[in-house]
Fold this protein.
Amino acid sequence: MCFVRAPYYCTWERSAFVERNPMLKISQLAQIKSESPYVYEALTQLVNGVNAVGRATGVDPSGSIAAPSPIGSLNVTAADGIFDLAITDNSTLNRGIFYFAESDTTPAFSQPYVHFLGSSRNLRVSLGNQTLYWRAYSQYLGSETSQPVAFGSPPTAVTGGGTATGPALQTSSGSGTASGNEAGSGFGQAAKSTSGPVLLR
């Protein structure tokens, strides 16, 4: 939950701790208030409006917000080539949270396929009779990703079952600004990709 303090401070409450993050701030507001109350009022409304948009969309207009807490667990079942994922996340959340799942043929997740769940915590996808490892994490648009949580400890492979195997897996193209070998990146660690256009798969 996010609590507004003064016109420009926000406290993001998380399950592990409460972190105070300055959002958009105009440091001269106190002086402006005494010199021009009407300008002060207008600027205060602008600051409040910008920060309200930031809180609703999961971004900090002046920088990055704290990464969300790790999800509670990931459960994966499979039959007839269909994988069914369910994420449990009991941490304190703000609107604008997104979830990602990753699948890979090895538990190292060195070049995983990234599955974007949006705000949903469930995914049902047909991938054929493959044996895959799974993990999941969350992210706000303006934050780093949470620590990934794998299915099983240590990570446990899940076999899709059925007779259909589908085509051979192509090399992962990654997600967002991240390349295919940058696992656990969600929207990407960098604000802008420097590796050129991403190949569609």
In short: Residues 73-159 form a domain with the Immunoglobulin-like fold (CATH 2.60.40.10).
